[in-house]
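STRUCTURE:
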């Protein structure tokens, strides 16, 4: 929270109201830490500050005060879009309610070496927005919650922010939080996680416009800090909140290794991973916009939609980092990009990919695309159905739509009549040599040897002993297609039942009868 009292923009007030019903009374004002105070308080923080994150950054005074010559990037989130993060330093600002952003950050395991916070005081937030904090419901003392008569469990904003910051720290990360001393003493001190606090400073109230009798606590905590058994953190009170008084008190403590055992590890950790975590934060920011403000998202919240008749597939950076979507699903999504629905409906494998992707509960798909895909698939089936009943040889061209085939005779060893076997269809590029007439004046019966190549269907069927039988129109190169047994398509027809193919009368009898009636009328 900076120097001046700032009313929140009305457009962003609804998010606060959703998080806590007491926001209208208590949370619509921002009381920001004076820059000079923030700078003095940062004396006790690690000197290596490659990346700093403030989850409720306001106008950015707290981050401004903590930045030093080692800082390369700052991250901030706040519902106020007018935040002013430090210039001349790379920055990522997410306009978001932190109570909603936290779960998104937790989903992609966002971590930071240094987190500073000045949360809003005395608000009760919905507990279900902080379920990623391990065992939070079981371990919190009863006074952490709002009234038990509420339908939704609540958690105090100060305690929730402390637990969330602790959760987001790297294994050797540090944090600093400014809060109401009475609230921290009542809610944080009894909590098991208070053992991570290695220094507790108490200052007179330095926020203009607030109750002067209120004392301010500044908590310094570390993820891997553990006190000696039996010891407890004791708050240290200062009579003045003047920056110079704070600095004089804290400066001697920076060399006290008994408090800073965790400090030694952080030196080599920040520069190694901070850029990767900054990218995670940016991905979470985009995901927040997609989930809670889709109209401002570049892709309007859709993973799949139509643009100029072609499919646009958009995998958000967040989805790439979450690890919850399999590589196969991601690959299927990317296969759809840039294709028309009908183009993908023609081949069985691409058609199945399209249908499984569009009708999946993983992706967000625009209704216009769903309708276009269903129409394309239906149009494909209608356009390819024959006008007359087909012979078994002709029906082979439709066999690639089936996954199994029934044996009708035991002409080929390994197959039993009446049983069904798994069928796999492939389109292969095959080559063969043919001799065609090439008469000359000297030899009217002369022939020419020609190499013919092209795509053809290859059917694979496993027998009772799991041997693989290949059926094709022409002889196969056994080096390119090393299967157990090779057969002709004639043998396939003689051994197996080639499924019937619906004709136009079966596919759309109403339309068929309409056109049949027209033809009969023309004949008479």
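SEQUENCE:
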């Amino acid at each position: 929270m900076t120097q001046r009292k700032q009313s929140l923009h009305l457009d962003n007030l609804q998010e606060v109201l959703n998080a806590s019903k007491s926001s209208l009374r208590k949370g619509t004002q921002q009381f920001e830490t004076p820059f000079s105070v923030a700078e003095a308080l940062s004396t006790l923080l690690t000197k290596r500050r490659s990346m700093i994150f403030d989850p409720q950054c306001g106008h950015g005074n707290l981050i401004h005060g903590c930045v030093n010559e080692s800082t390369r990037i700052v991250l901030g989130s706040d519902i106020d879009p007018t935040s002013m993060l430090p210039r001349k330093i790379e920055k990522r600002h997410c306009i978001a309610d932190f109570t909603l952003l936290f779960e998104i950050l937790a989903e992609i395991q966002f971590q930071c070496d240094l987190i500073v916070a000045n949360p809003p005081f005395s608000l009760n937030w919905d507990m279900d927005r902080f379920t990623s904090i391990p065992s939070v419901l079981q371990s919190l003392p009863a006074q952490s919650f709002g009234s038990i008569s509420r339908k939704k469990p609540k958690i105090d904003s100060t305690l929730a922010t402390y637990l969330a910051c602790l959760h987001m720290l790297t294994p050797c990360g540090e944090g600093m939080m400014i809060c109401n001393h009475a609230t921290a003493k009542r809610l944080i001190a009894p909590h098991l996680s208070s053992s991570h606090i290695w220094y507790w400073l108490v200052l007179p109230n330095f926020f203009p416009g607030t109750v002067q009798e209120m004392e301010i606590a500044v908590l310094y905590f570390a993820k891997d800090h553990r006190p000696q058994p039996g010891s407890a953190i004791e708050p240290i009170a200062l009579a003045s909140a003047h920056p110079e008084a704070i600095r004089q008190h804290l400066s001697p403590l920076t060399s006290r290794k008994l408090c800073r055992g965790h400090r030694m590890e952080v030196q080599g950790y920040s520069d190694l991973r901070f850029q990767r975590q900054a990218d995670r934060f940016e991905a979470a920011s985009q995901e927040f916009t997609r989930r809670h403000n889709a109209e401002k998202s570049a892709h309007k919240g859709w993973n799949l939609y139509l643009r100029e008749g072609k499919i646009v597939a958009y995998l958000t950076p967040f989805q790439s980092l979450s690890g919850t979507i399999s590589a196969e699903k991601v690959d299927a999504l990317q296969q759809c990009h840039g294709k028309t629905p009908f183009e993908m409906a023609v081949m069985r494998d691409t058609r199945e990919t399209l249908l499984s992707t569009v009708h999946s509960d993983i992706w967000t798909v625009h209704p216009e695309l769903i309708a276009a895909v269903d129409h394309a698939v239906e149009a494909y089936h209608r356009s390819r159905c024959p006008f007359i009943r087909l012979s078994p040889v002709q029906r082979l061209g439709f066999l690639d739509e089936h996954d199994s085939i029934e044996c009708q005779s035991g002409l080929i060893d390994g197959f039993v009549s009446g049983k069904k076997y798994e069928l796999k269809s492939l389109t292969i590029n095959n080559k063969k040599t043919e001799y065609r007439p090439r008469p000359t004046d000297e030899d009217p019966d002369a022939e020419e040897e020609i190499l013919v190549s092209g795509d053809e269907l290859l059917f694979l069927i496993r027998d009772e002993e799991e041997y693989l039988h290949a059926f094709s129109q022409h002889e196969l190169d056994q080096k390119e297609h090393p299967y157990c047994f090779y057969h002709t398509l004639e043998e396939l027809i003689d051994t197996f039942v080639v499924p019937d193919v619906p004709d136009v009368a079966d596919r759309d009898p109403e339309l068929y009868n309409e056109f049949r009636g027209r033809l009969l009328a023309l004949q008479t």
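REMARK: The two ends are 90 Å apart (CA to CA).
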